[in-house]
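Researcher: For the annotation table, I need structure tokens for Lipoprotein. Please keep the output clean. Sequence:
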Amino acid sequence: MRGITVIIIWLAVFILVGCNEEAEDVLSGDRPPDAYIDIDNEKYPAKLGSYCWQLDGKGECVDMAGPVELLKGKEPVEVEAGETVTFGMDFHPKPNEVYVLQIENGKESELDVNGNSFRAPKKEGIYYYSYGVWWMDEKEKNVSNGDAFYFFALDVQQSEKQE
């Protein structure tokens, strides 16, 4: 009897350790984490748009309007032309793929992102952004564990130095 108890305890430890190691790669929460943009060490919240999220083996996808529609009536964040804008979230694991789309007067253009950062345009105006992030599976190719699109708007102003 004692041998069976020891085996059961070892099996329980083995299962718990195995599950714990696996859980490090799994996303948590019932939806994507909150995100923000950081400009000159000041954080501004980004609006969560469409997303797909996996939790406990079940997936959920939510479809939302685009950034221009979803941010209608909201004040854009003021930023100086050419200033660095950094995207962040207090969440682990971090997404391993990103895509940034800039929208100005209905014209869309993809931006280069370096270290989760990009530079604000040099031309004054209101710009809308869609920041898409993916948590791609590191073991299975082309498998996403979750994705989310975050939206924000910038009001680009010329700095007094540039005028």
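Researcher: And a one-line annotation?
Model: The first strand starts at residue 36 and ends at 39.
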